[in-house]
Amino acid sequence: MANESIIKFDEVSFGYGHNHPILDEVDFSAKQGTKITLMGQNGAGKSTIFQLLTGALKPDSGIIIVSEKITVATAKQVIPRDQMDLTVREFFQKCFKQKVYDIDPRIDDILEAVNLHAPHDRIVKSFSGGQQARLLLASALIQDPDLLLLDEPTNNLDKAGIAHLTKFLKDYKKTCIVISHDADFLNAFTDGILYLDVFTRKVEQYAGNYFDVVKQITAKIEKDNAKNAQLSKTIQEKKDKANFFANKGGKMRILAKRMRDLADEMEESKADIRREDKTIRPFIIPAQEDLSGEILNISSFTVIKNHKPVTRKTDISLKKNQHLLLSGPNGIGKSTLLEALANDQAKGSVIASGVRVGYYRQDFSTLNFDDTVFQSLSAVMDEQIEEKLRATAASFLITGDLVYKKIGNLSEGQKGLVAFARLVLQKPGLLILDEPTNHINFRHLPIIAEALNKYQGAMVLVSHVPEFVAKIRIDNTLDLEK
After folding, report:
1. CB 452 within 8 A of CB 168
2. Helices and strands per DSSP (H, E), number in the chain
3. Which of 23, 198, 257, 431 could form a disulfide linkage to 44, CB 3.0–4.6 angstroms apart?
Protein backbone atom coordinates (compact mmCIF):
# COMPACT_ATOMS: atom_id res chain seq x y z
CA MET A 1 0.00 0.00 0.00
CA ALA A 2 3.06 2.25 0.35
CA ASN A 3 3.09 5.21 -2.05
CA GLU A 4 -0.59 4.63 -2.92
CA SER A 5 -3.18 7.40 -2.66
CA ILE A 6 -5.16 6.81 0.51
CA ILE A 7 -7.54 9.73 -0.07
CA LYS A 8 -8.88 11.28 -3.26
CA PHE A 9 -11.29 14.11 -4.06
CA ASP A 10 -12.90 13.61 -7.47
CA GLU A 11 -14.81 16.67 -8.76
CA VAL A 12 -16.09 17.42 -5.26
CA SER A 13 -18.42 20.40 -4.81
CA PHE A 14 -19.78 21.64 -1.50
CA GLY A 15 -21.54 24.71 -0.14
CA TYR A 16 -23.52 25.87 2.86
CA GLY A 17 -26.62 26.59 0.80
CA HIS A 18 -26.76 28.45 -2.54
CA ASN A 19 -25.38 31.68 -1.05
CA HIS A 20 -22.21 30.19 0.40
CA PRO A 21 -20.37 27.90 -2.07
CA ILE A 22 -17.04 26.54 -0.77
CA LEU A 23 -15.71 23.96 -3.25
CA ASP A 24 -16.28 23.77 -7.01
CA GLU A 25 -15.42 20.40 -8.63
CA VAL A 26 -12.25 20.03 -6.57
CA ASP A 27 -9.66 17.33 -7.39
CA PHE A 28 -6.68 16.29 -5.25
CA SER A 29 -5.14 13.21 -3.65
CA ALA A 30 -2.71 12.29 -0.87
CA LYS A 31 -0.33 9.34 -0.79
CA GLN A 32 0.37 7.21 2.24
CA GLY A 33 3.06 8.58 4.54
CA THR A 34 3.11 12.10 3.07
CA LYS A 35 2.94 15.34 5.08
CA ILE A 36 0.78 17.90 3.30
CA THR A 37 -0.03 21.52 4.10
CA LEU A 38 -3.54 22.86 3.40
CA MET A 39 -3.51 26.60 2.80
CA GLY A 40 -6.06 29.29 1.94
CA GLN A 41 -7.57 32.56 3.10
CA ASN A 42 -9.52 32.83 6.38
CA GLY A 43 -13.02 31.51 5.69
CA ALA A 44 -12.03 29.84 2.39
CA GLY A 45 -13.13 26.43 3.68
CA LYS A 46 -9.99 24.63 4.91
CA SER A 47 -11.68 23.26 8.03
CA THR A 48 -14.63 22.26 5.83
CA ILE A 49 -12.31 20.01 3.80
CA PHE A 50 -11.29 18.33 7.07
CA GLN A 51 -14.94 17.73 7.95
CA LEU A 52 -15.53 16.22 4.50
CA LEU A 53 -12.57 13.89 5.04
CA THR A 54 -13.89 12.70 8.41
CA GLY A 55 -17.41 12.22 7.04
CA ALA A 56 -18.88 14.89 9.32
CA LEU A 57 -20.04 16.64 6.13
CA LYS A 58 -21.16 15.13 2.82
CA PRO A 59 -20.34 16.62 -0.61
CA ASP A 60 -23.11 18.12 -2.75
CA SER A 61 -21.61 16.33 -5.75
CA GLY A 62 -18.50 14.40 -6.70
CA ILE A 63 -16.80 11.54 -4.89
CA ILE A 64 -14.52 11.43 -1.84
CA ILE A 65 -12.53 8.19 -1.79
CA VAL A 66 -10.94 7.14 1.49
CA SER A 67 -9.11 3.79 1.40
CA GLU A 68 -10.82 0.92 3.22
CA LYS A 69 -9.96 0.48 6.89
CA ILE A 70 -8.28 3.90 6.99
CA THR A 71 -8.82 5.61 10.34
CA VAL A 72 -8.98 9.40 10.48
CA ALA A 73 -8.56 11.70 13.49
CA THR A 74 -8.60 15.49 13.75
CA ALA A 75 -6.87 17.82 16.19
CA LYS A 76 -9.20 20.81 16.04
CA GLN A 77 -8.24 24.46 16.47
CA VAL A 78 -10.00 24.81 19.81
CA ILE A 79 -11.48 22.51 22.43
CA PRO A 80 -15.29 22.49 22.06
CA ARG A 81 -17.01 24.56 24.74
CA ASP A 82 -19.10 21.62 25.91
CA GLN A 83 -15.89 19.71 26.75
CA MET A 84 -14.26 22.41 28.88
CA ASP A 85 -15.70 21.06 32.14
CA LEU A 86 -14.56 17.47 31.50
CA THR A 87 -11.66 15.87 33.35
CA VAL A 88 -8.60 14.87 31.32
CA ARG A 89 -9.73 11.23 31.53
CA GLU A 90 -13.27 12.07 30.31
CA PHE A 91 -11.85 14.26 27.53
CA PHE A 92 -9.76 11.41 26.12
CA GLN A 93 -12.53 8.85 26.62
CA LYS A 94 -14.71 10.96 24.27
CA CYS A 95 -12.19 10.27 21.49
CA PHE A 96 -13.48 6.69 21.30
CA LYS A 97 -16.93 5.41 20.33
CA GLN A 98 -16.69 2.60 22.88
CA LYS A 99 -15.42 2.70 26.46
CA VAL A 100 -11.68 2.05 26.79
CA TYR A 101 -10.95 0.29 30.09
CA ASP A 102 -7.14 0.64 30.04
CA ILE A 103 -7.21 4.31 29.07
CA ASP A 104 -5.05 5.69 31.93
CA PRO A 105 -1.70 4.25 30.76
CA ARG A 106 -2.57 5.26 27.19
CA ILE A 107 -3.21 8.84 28.39
CA ASP A 108 0.16 8.89 30.18
CA ASP A 109 1.98 7.68 27.05
CA ILE A 110 0.29 10.20 24.75
CA LEU A 111 0.78 13.15 27.15
CA GLU A 112 4.46 12.22 27.28
CA ALA A 113 4.52 12.38 23.46
CA VAL A 114 3.20 15.99 23.49
CA ASN A 115 5.38 17.02 26.46
CA LEU A 116 2.52 17.63 28.90
CA HIS A 117 2.24 16.20 32.40
CA ALA A 118 -1.14 16.41 34.12
CA PRO A 119 -3.29 14.46 36.60
CA HIS A 120 -6.16 12.64 34.89
CA ASP A 121 -8.79 14.22 37.16
CA ARG A 122 -7.77 17.79 36.29
CA ILE A 123 -10.49 19.87 34.55
CA VAL A 124 -9.75 20.81 30.93
CA LYS A 125 -10.62 24.50 31.28
CA SER A 126 -7.97 24.88 34.01
CA PHE A 127 -5.20 24.39 31.44
CA SER A 128 -3.51 27.32 29.69
CA GLY A 129 -4.07 27.92 25.97
CA GLY A 130 -0.75 26.27 25.10
CA GLN A 131 -1.53 23.27 27.28
CA GLN A 132 -4.96 22.96 25.66
CA ALA A 133 -3.23 22.95 22.26
CA ARG A 134 -1.18 19.98 23.46
CA LEU A 135 -4.35 18.24 24.70
CA LEU A 136 -5.97 18.71 21.28
CA LEU A 137 -2.97 17.16 19.54
CA ALA A 138 -2.89 14.29 22.05
CA SER A 139 -6.63 13.65 21.53
CA ALA A 140 -5.93 12.89 17.86
CA LEU A 141 -2.73 10.91 18.48
CA ILE A 142 -4.27 8.63 21.10
CA GLN A 143 -6.50 7.24 18.33
CA ASP A 144 -3.37 6.18 16.37
CA PRO A 145 -4.99 7.23 13.06
CA ASP A 146 -3.78 6.36 9.57
CA LEU A 147 -4.65 9.94 8.53
CA LEU A 148 -3.90 12.72 11.02
CA LEU A 149 -5.59 16.10 10.42
CA LEU A 150 -4.08 19.04 12.35
CA ASP A 151 -5.91 22.37 12.34
CA GLU A 152 -3.57 25.24 13.36
CA PRO A 153 -1.59 23.03 15.78
CA THR A 154 1.01 25.70 16.68
CA ASN A 155 -1.56 28.18 18.02
CA ASN A 156 -0.74 29.04 21.65
CA LEU A 157 2.37 26.83 21.66
CA ASP A 158 5.60 28.33 23.00
CA LYS A 159 8.96 27.89 21.23
CA ALA A 160 9.67 24.60 23.01
CA GLY A 161 6.20 23.28 22.16
CA ILE A 162 6.59 24.08 18.45
CA ALA A 163 10.03 22.44 18.39
CA HIS A 164 8.58 19.33 20.05
CA LEU A 165 5.67 19.17 17.58
CA THR A 166 8.01 19.69 14.60
CA LYS A 167 10.21 16.77 15.66
CA PHE A 168 7.14 14.60 16.19
CA LEU A 169 5.84 15.31 12.68
CA LYS A 170 9.24 14.67 11.09
CA ASP A 171 9.32 11.24 12.75
CA TYR A 172 5.63 10.45 12.11
CA LYS A 173 5.32 7.52 9.69
CA LYS A 174 1.68 7.93 8.71
CA THR A 175 -0.16 10.46 6.54
CA CYS A 176 -0.72 13.96 7.89
CA ILE A 177 -2.50 17.05 6.55
CA VAL A 178 -1.83 20.31 8.40
CA ILE A 179 -3.57 23.68 8.30
CA SER A 180 -1.15 26.37 9.49
CA HIS A 181 0.07 29.89 8.77
CA ASP A 182 3.51 29.32 10.34
CA ALA A 183 5.92 29.24 7.37
CA ASP A 184 9.06 28.04 9.21
CA PHE A 185 7.11 25.29 10.98
CA LEU A 186 5.58 24.08 7.70
CA ASN A 187 8.86 24.11 5.81
CA ALA A 188 10.42 21.76 8.37
CA PHE A 189 8.32 18.74 7.31
CA THR A 190 6.03 19.51 4.33
CA ASP A 191 6.15 17.25 1.24
CA GLY A 192 3.54 19.21 -0.68
CA ILE A 193 0.84 21.88 -0.52
CA LEU A 194 -2.87 21.99 -1.26
CA TYR A 195 -3.95 25.59 -1.86
CA LEU A 196 -7.69 26.33 -1.59
CA ASP A 197 -8.36 29.41 -3.71
CA VAL A 198 -11.21 31.42 -2.14
CA PHE A 199 -11.99 33.07 -5.51
CA THR A 200 -12.14 30.03 -7.82
CA ARG A 201 -13.07 27.57 -5.03
CA LYS A 202 -10.60 25.12 -6.59
CA VAL A 203 -7.68 23.32 -4.92
CA GLU A 204 -4.23 23.64 -6.51
CA GLN A 205 -1.77 20.83 -5.66
CA TYR A 206 2.00 21.36 -5.48
CA ALA A 207 4.91 19.04 -4.61
CA GLY A 208 7.95 20.11 -2.58
CA ASN A 209 8.71 21.86 0.70
CA TYR A 210 6.90 25.02 1.68
CA PHE A 211 9.48 27.58 0.54
CA ASP A 212 10.06 25.78 -2.79
CA VAL A 213 6.32 25.74 -3.49
CA VAL A 214 6.02 29.47 -2.73
CA LYS A 215 8.77 30.04 -5.35
CA GLN A 216 6.93 27.78 -7.82
CA ILE A 217 3.69 29.71 -7.34
CA THR A 218 5.45 33.08 -7.70
CA ALA A 219 7.25 31.95 -10.88
CA LYS A 220 4.00 30.60 -12.37
CA ILE A 221 2.15 33.84 -11.66
CA GLU A 222 4.96 35.87 -13.28
CA LYS A 223 5.01 33.56 -16.32
CA ASP A 224 1.22 33.68 -16.70
CA ASN A 225 1.20 37.46 -16.33
CA ALA A 226 3.86 37.79 -19.06
CA LYS A 227 1.91 35.44 -21.36
CA ASN A 228 -1.33 37.35 -20.76
CA ALA A 229 0.36 40.70 -21.37
CA GLN A 230 1.64 39.47 -24.77
CA LEU A 231 -1.79 38.04 -25.63
CA SER A 232 -3.50 41.30 -24.64
CA LYS A 233 -1.19 43.20 -26.99
CA THR A 234 -1.91 40.79 -29.89
CA ILE A 235 -5.67 40.83 -29.13
CA GLN A 236 -5.74 44.62 -29.30
CA GLU A 237 -3.89 44.53 -32.63
CA LYS A 238 -6.49 42.07 -34.04
CA LYS A 239 -9.36 44.28 -32.80
CA ASP A 240 -7.78 47.37 -34.34
CA LYS A 241 -7.42 45.54 -37.69
CA ALA A 242 -11.01 44.24 -37.43
CA ASN A 243 -12.29 47.81 -36.98
CA PHE A 244 -10.15 48.97 -39.92
CA PHE A 245 -11.44 46.24 -42.26
CA ALA A 246 -15.06 46.66 -41.10
CA ASN A 247 -14.99 50.30 -42.13
CA LYS A 248 -13.84 49.28 -45.64
CA GLY A 249 -17.11 47.43 -46.20
CA GLY A 250 -17.82 44.65 -48.71
CA LYS A 251 -15.69 41.47 -48.46
CA MET A 252 -13.46 43.19 -45.95
CA ARG A 253 -16.23 42.73 -43.36
CA ILE A 254 -15.72 38.93 -43.56
CA LEU A 255 -12.05 39.47 -42.80
CA ALA A 256 -13.02 41.81 -39.94
CA LYS A 257 -15.28 39.07 -38.46
CA ARG A 258 -12.42 36.54 -38.74
CA MET A 259 -10.15 38.96 -36.87
CA ARG A 260 -12.72 39.41 -34.08
CA ASP A 261 -13.21 35.63 -33.77
CA LEU A 262 -9.43 35.22 -33.52
CA ALA A 263 -9.30 37.91 -30.82
CA ASP A 264 -12.06 36.11 -28.88
CA GLU A 265 -10.17 32.79 -29.10
CA MET A 266 -7.05 34.46 -27.77
CA GLU A 267 -9.07 36.02 -24.94
CA GLU A 268 -10.24 32.55 -23.90
CA SER A 269 -6.70 31.16 -24.01
CA LYS A 270 -5.46 33.64 -21.41
CA ALA A 271 -4.14 31.92 -18.28
CA ASP A 272 -6.42 32.14 -15.27
CA ILE A 273 -4.18 34.10 -12.91
CA ARG A 274 -4.37 33.11 -9.27
CA ARG A 275 -5.46 36.21 -7.42
CA GLU A 276 -3.66 36.73 -4.15
CA ASP A 277 -5.63 36.55 -0.93
CA LYS A 278 -7.20 39.85 0.00
CA THR A 279 -5.59 41.50 2.97
CA ILE A 280 -7.29 43.64 5.56
CA ARG A 281 -6.89 47.36 5.10
CA PRO A 282 -4.42 49.31 7.26
CA PHE A 283 -6.23 50.40 10.43
CA ILE A 284 -5.78 52.31 13.67
CA ILE A 285 -7.12 51.35 17.09
CA PRO A 286 -8.04 54.79 18.48
CA ALA A 287 -7.10 55.23 22.13
CA GLN A 288 -9.60 56.49 24.68
CA GLU A 289 -9.51 60.29 24.85
CA ASP A 290 -8.34 62.28 27.89
CA LEU A 291 -5.93 59.61 29.14
CA SER A 292 -3.42 61.01 31.62
CA GLY A 293 -1.07 59.78 34.34
CA GLU A 294 -0.65 56.14 35.28
CA ILE A 295 -3.06 53.79 33.52
CA LEU A 296 -1.92 50.44 34.95
CA ASN A 297 0.28 49.56 37.94
CA ILE A 298 1.51 46.02 38.64
CA SER A 299 3.29 45.56 41.99
CA SER A 300 2.93 41.77 42.23
CA PHE A 301 1.61 38.83 40.22
CA THR A 302 0.95 35.11 40.60
CA VAL A 303 2.55 32.35 38.52
CA ILE A 304 2.10 28.58 38.50
CA LYS A 305 5.21 26.59 39.45
CA ASN A 306 4.98 22.80 39.94
CA HIS A 307 1.16 23.10 39.75
CA LYS A 308 1.13 25.57 42.70
CA PRO A 309 0.53 29.37 42.74
CA VAL A 310 3.57 31.48 43.63
CA THR A 311 3.41 35.27 44.19
CA ARG A 312 6.22 37.45 42.88
CA LYS A 313 6.99 41.13 43.31
CA THR A 314 7.56 43.57 40.47
CA ASP A 315 7.32 47.28 39.72
CA ILE A 316 5.53 47.97 36.44
CA SER A 317 3.86 51.27 35.63
CA LEU A 318 2.16 51.88 32.29
CA LYS A 319 1.16 55.29 31.02
CA LYS A 320 -0.22 56.48 27.71
CA ASN A 321 1.66 55.13 24.68
CA GLN A 322 3.59 52.48 26.67
CA HIS A 323 3.62 48.83 25.64
CA LEU A 324 4.36 45.86 27.93
CA LEU A 325 5.22 42.33 26.74
CA LEU A 326 4.39 39.42 29.08
CA SER A 327 6.61 36.39 28.40
CA GLY A 328 7.07 32.90 29.82
CA PRO A 329 6.46 29.24 28.90
CA ASN A 330 3.07 27.57 28.46
CA GLY A 331 1.29 26.93 31.73
CA ILE A 332 3.01 29.59 33.83
CA GLY A 333 -0.12 31.73 34.05
CA LYS A 334 0.08 34.42 31.34
CA SER A 335 -3.52 34.07 30.14
CA THR A 336 -4.77 33.83 33.73
CA LEU A 337 -3.02 37.09 34.57
CA LEU A 338 -4.39 38.81 31.44
CA GLU A 339 -7.94 37.69 32.23
CA ALA A 340 -7.63 38.94 35.81
CA LEU A 341 -6.26 42.27 34.53
CA ALA A 342 -9.09 42.61 32.00
CA ASN A 343 -11.66 42.01 34.73
CA ASP A 344 -9.80 44.34 37.13
CA GLN A 345 -9.45 41.46 39.61
CA ALA A 346 -5.68 40.88 39.50
CA LYS A 347 -4.18 41.02 42.99
CA GLY A 348 -1.27 43.43 43.02
CA SER A 349 -2.55 45.32 39.95
CA VAL A 350 -4.52 48.55 39.72
CA ILE A 351 -6.19 50.06 36.64
CA ALA A 352 -6.89 53.79 36.88
CA SER A 353 -10.52 54.76 37.35
CA GLY A 354 -12.51 55.37 34.17
CA VAL A 355 -10.08 53.55 31.87
CA ARG A 356 -11.87 51.50 29.21
CA VAL A 357 -10.29 48.05 28.71
CA GLY A 358 -10.16 46.36 25.30
CA TYR A 359 -9.51 42.63 25.69
CA TYR A 360 -8.55 40.31 22.81
CA ARG A 361 -8.85 36.81 24.22
CA GLN A 362 -7.24 33.86 22.44
CA ASP A 363 -10.38 31.67 22.67
CA PHE A 364 -12.72 34.52 21.63
CA SER A 365 -14.89 33.93 24.72
CA THR A 366 -15.35 37.71 25.02
CA LEU A 367 -17.57 37.35 21.94
CA ASN A 368 -21.18 36.15 22.25
CA PHE A 369 -21.35 33.33 19.70
CA ASP A 370 -25.13 33.74 19.39
CA ASP A 371 -24.80 37.38 18.30
CA THR A 372 -24.57 38.34 14.66
CA VAL A 373 -21.47 40.27 13.62
CA PHE A 374 -23.68 43.36 13.38
CA GLN A 375 -24.91 42.94 16.96
CA SER A 376 -21.40 42.23 18.24
CA LEU A 377 -19.96 45.39 16.70
CA SER A 378 -22.95 47.53 17.69
CA ALA A 379 -22.50 46.49 21.34
CA VAL A 380 -19.18 48.35 21.68
CA MET A 381 -20.15 51.55 19.82
CA ASP A 382 -20.88 54.80 21.66
CA GLU A 383 -23.01 56.04 18.77
CA GLN A 384 -24.98 53.61 16.62
CA ILE A 385 -23.87 54.75 13.16
CA GLU A 386 -24.50 51.90 10.72
CA GLU A 387 -22.33 53.41 7.99
CA LYS A 388 -19.34 53.52 10.35
CA LEU A 389 -19.99 49.95 11.55
CA ARG A 390 -20.18 48.59 7.99
CA ALA A 391 -17.08 50.52 6.87
CA THR A 392 -15.08 49.16 9.82
CA ALA A 393 -16.34 45.61 9.21
CA ALA A 394 -15.48 45.86 5.50
CA SER A 395 -11.91 46.90 6.29
CA PHE A 396 -11.60 43.51 8.06
CA LEU A 397 -13.11 41.64 5.06
CA ILE A 398 -16.51 41.30 6.78
CA THR A 399 -18.73 42.38 3.90
CA GLY A 400 -22.24 41.88 2.50
CA ASP A 401 -24.41 39.31 4.26
CA LEU A 402 -21.46 38.22 6.43
CA VAL A 403 -22.37 40.99 8.92
CA TYR A 404 -25.65 39.16 9.64
CA LYS A 405 -23.95 35.82 10.21
CA LYS A 406 -23.72 34.52 13.79
CA ILE A 407 -20.27 34.75 15.38
CA GLY A 408 -20.41 31.02 16.19
CA ASN A 409 -20.74 30.20 12.48
CA LEU A 410 -17.62 32.12 11.43
CA SER A 411 -14.23 30.51 10.92
CA GLU A 412 -11.73 31.02 13.74
CA GLY A 413 -9.80 33.49 11.58
CA GLN A 414 -12.93 35.51 10.89
CA LYS A 415 -13.73 35.60 14.63
CA GLY A 416 -10.28 37.10 15.16
CA LEU A 417 -10.96 39.80 12.57
CA VAL A 418 -14.30 40.62 14.24
CA ALA A 419 -12.45 40.92 17.58
CA PHE A 420 -10.07 43.47 16.04
CA ALA A 421 -12.97 45.39 14.47
CA ARG A 422 -14.56 45.61 17.94
CA LEU A 423 -11.35 47.09 19.37
CA VAL A 424 -11.34 49.76 16.63
CA LEU A 425 -14.92 50.74 17.49
CA GLN A 426 -14.44 50.44 21.26
CA LYS A 427 -11.52 52.92 21.53
CA PRO A 428 -9.90 51.40 24.65
CA GLY A 429 -7.51 53.18 27.01
CA LEU A 430 -5.86 49.87 28.01
CA LEU A 431 -5.41 47.20 25.36
CA ILE A 432 -4.90 43.60 26.57
CA LEU A 433 -3.99 41.10 23.85
CA ASP A 434 -3.66 37.34 24.36
CA GLU A 435 -2.06 35.64 21.32
CA PRO A 436 -3.58 37.98 18.68
CA THR A 437 -1.90 36.12 15.78
CA ASN A 438 -3.79 32.85 16.40
CA HIS A 439 -5.87 31.69 13.42
CA ILE A 440 -5.06 34.88 11.46
CA ASN A 441 -3.92 34.68 7.81
CA PHE A 442 -0.20 35.48 7.65
CA ARG A 443 -0.89 38.22 5.07
CA HIS A 444 -2.80 40.22 7.70
CA LEU A 445 -0.11 40.03 10.41
CA PRO A 446 2.15 42.91 9.25
CA ILE A 447 -0.92 45.21 9.11
CA ILE A 448 -2.03 44.16 12.60
CA ALA A 449 1.50 44.61 13.95
CA GLU A 450 1.65 48.12 12.49
CA ALA A 451 -1.71 49.02 14.10
CA LEU A 452 -0.50 47.80 17.52
CA ASN A 453 2.80 49.61 17.05
CA LYS A 454 0.93 52.90 16.57
CA TYR A 455 -1.56 52.37 19.40
CA GLN A 456 -1.44 55.43 21.70
CA GLY A 457 -2.96 53.94 24.86
CA ALA A 458 -1.35 51.50 27.31
CA MET A 459 -0.92 47.95 26.01
CA VAL A 460 -0.18 44.52 27.51
CA LEU A 461 0.69 41.81 24.97
CA VAL A 462 1.25 38.05 25.07
CA SER A 463 2.54 36.41 21.89
CA HIS A 464 4.71 33.39 21.15
CA VAL A 465 5.48 34.61 17.61
CA PRO A 466 8.85 36.45 17.76
CA GLU A 467 8.64 37.77 14.15
CA PHE A 468 5.32 39.45 15.04
CA VAL A 469 6.57 40.90 18.34
CA ALA A 470 9.70 42.22 16.58
CA LYS A 471 7.48 44.51 14.47
CA ILE A 472 5.89 46.14 17.56
CA ARG A 473 7.44 48.75 19.82
CA ILE A 474 7.87 47.17 23.26
CA ASP A 475 8.83 49.50 26.14
CA ASN A 476 9.04 46.91 28.91
CA THR A 477 9.05 43.11 29.26
CA LEU A 478 7.78 41.16 32.25
CA ASP A 479 9.20 37.60 32.15
CA LEU A 480 6.92 35.58 34.44
CA GLU A 481 9.46 32.76 34.67
CA LYS A 482 12.16 35.03 36.07
Report:
1. no
2. 14, 17
3. 198
